[in-house]
Specification:
The complex is a heterodimer of chains A (114) and B (136).
Chain A (H helix, E strand, L loop, with lengths): L2 H27 L7 H28 L2 H4 L6 H13 L5 H19 L1
Chain B lengths: L1 H10 L1 H29 L14 H23 L2 H8 L2 H12 L6 H27 L1
Helix pairs in contact in B: 2-3, 2-5, 4-6
Classes of the chains: A mainly alpha (114), B mainly alpha (136).
Chain lengths: 114, 136
Amino acid sequence: MTPWALAVCVACQLCLVGGQICLKHGMNATHHVPKPWRLILINVAAALVLMTVWFFLWLGLLQDWELSRLFPFEALSPPLLVFGAWLFLNERISRVAVAGIVMIAAGVLLVSQS
Amino acid sequence: MTGRRGLALFLNPYFQLGASAVLLSIAEVLLKQGADLRAAVDPTTVLFGIGALAYASTWIGIVLYVLSFISWLHVLRLMPLSQAYALINVVHVLVPAAAWMFLQERLSLGRLAGIALVFAGTLLVAAPAAKAEDEL
């Protein structure tokens, strides 16, 4: 795969993870009384924008690359979540998580070169 | 009685999780078919694959994707996130298998090894990722 395609694959997953987090924040806010409508709408709208970008980037990638080569990149979402928690919440990354992330990264690299 | 048992089975989180994985796999194959049809008409590399929306397979793929997402939301209401994350990883085996079966994609030894590594890695990282998603 070209470096450009690899970068688009990663950007695609960043949009997906960002969209999921925004959607979750929006849904969590619906439990508050009174409902913070502004916060809910901003989060849901941001999630929709990010997921739409993810979807069309993904369709663009599918036009050029095989599905079995692209799909393993979807597995980058869990490592991105763990990195996000480390970056924004100073969460420690456990050894098991590090092992999993290394395996996913190695697997994705192997598939991208196949 | 049979109807009630059928409904109970249908709403069972494990059944819904399986349904979600299968629907997602079929959706991915259909999206790829739509993208291939577009690429056959215009092989230029594009950043956003909007042109694939001109094909029925893309739209059926989108509908199945949404159905898969609804099943996933149902699963999340009834199952801990870490467990659901670990089980849904079966898609990393199902999707390449579907691509091989229905799209005639060749799965080289290197690709199979990579897919196996990704699958094993996602199982290890499922619980920490679920915790991270809860907190973020």
